[in-house]
Specification:
This protein is mainly beta and about 300 residues long. It has two domains: about 100 residues; about 160 residues, no CATH class. The longest helix has 7 residues. The radius of gyration is 22 Å and the shape is globular.
Length: about 300
């Protein structure tokens, strides 16, 4: 197989350590229409002096890539797998779709092994929905924010609605509307450091996305995959100085909260899709009225169901 050409600087320039060779191997996997999760069970092994971690990249085989019969999205952000907690969602829209798993290992290390992966079929939900490109094209654009206004505190990708921007204290999504939330991001407010606010999505029973730092997107867009809940936690100075409150509603009518704490988990016993949630964040020591006033809104979700269940 011909190697790609690499052009180095002229001989007079320092060319040391510019190009490191790796060895690779690929495996073809044939899958049927549906939604799958590929996650890391155990990291790969390599000598301590190796310049890279053994890793695996997930992609559609040539001719079936993004926009074709295979589409992928990484959790949290890319299609590379090397450490436990990382995962890639794969959506196959055609029978006998071909998935390519390519392992990359440091050259010269005969003991190196790739990560051990787990492949789980999540169901047929993706096959019944529009292709990701169609879903994104059909969704309205994110709500406009004036240039002088601060960025929205919370942005969620809602089924058939696209990206929706809300503030702390406002409901994201709508209970009883029949549209689940696929992913979200939360921006740390003034006074809270980025690394002191983290969150993750509930993807299945006992299966959670990695913790995402504030500002990062958690979940997926256009994959027709609902998240089944969310967890939020405060750390460091934010844990000491701020209070967090959350409540959520789900597709089966469950309503959870309000819950208060440094780490909050909102998910229904039946693992129904998350339809709406509200997050409030304010300095400690405020009374109930001051706490609510420190956030944007306390309006209830549209069409909230009467059935209410609480978790503490």
């Amino acid at each position: 197989m011909a190697q790609p050409e690499v052009r180095l600087p002229p001989s007079g320039a320092d060319r040391s350590d510019m190009v490191a060779e790796v060895r690779s191997s690929a495996h073809m996997l044939t899958i049927q229409p549906g939604l799958y999760c590929i996650s890391v069970l155990e990291p790969g092994r390599a000598l301590a002096q190796s310049a890279m971690l053994p890793s695996t990249r997930i992609s559609g085989a040539p001719g079936t890539g993004q926009g074709g019969s295979i589409s992928t999205v990484g959790l949290p952000s890319n299609e590379w797998l090397d450490t436990p907690g990382q995962a890639v969602l794969v959506r196959a829209s055609s029978p006998n779709s071909r998935l390519l798993l390519t392992n990359y290992l440091p050259r010269g290390d005969a003991t190196a092994t790739p990560p051990k992966l787990h492949i789980q079929r999540l169901g047929d939900i993706a096959a019944a929905m529009p292709a990701p490109a169609e879903a994104i094209a059909a969704a309205p654009p994110a709500e406009a924010v004036p240039d002088q206004a601060p960025p929205p505190a919370i942005v969620a990708h809602v089924q058939r609605d696209g990206d929706v921007a809300r503030g702390f204290g406002e409901w994201v999504g709508a209970a009883g509307a029949g549209r689940w939330i696929e992913g979200f991001s939360i921006a740390a407010p003034e006074g809270v450091a980025t690394q002191d606010l983290e969150y993750q999505a509930v993807l299945g029973r006992g299966w959670l996305s990695p913790w995402i730092l504030s500002g990062g997107f958690c979940g997926s867009r256009g994959m027709s995959l609902p998240i089944l809940g969310l967890r939020v936690r405060l750390k460091g100075a934010a844990h000491l100085n701020y209070a967090c409150e959350a409540e959520a509603t789900f597709g089966d009518g469950t309503r959870i909260g309000p819950l208060v704490g440094a780490e909050i988990a909102c998910e229904s016993d039946t693992l129904a899709p998350l339809e709406s949630f509200r997050l409030m964040l304010a300095p400690k020591g405020l009374d109930a009225g001051e706490f609510a006033a420190a956030n944007v809104s306390t309006m209830p979700p549209r069409g909230a169901r009467k059935s209410v269940r609480m978790k503490t």
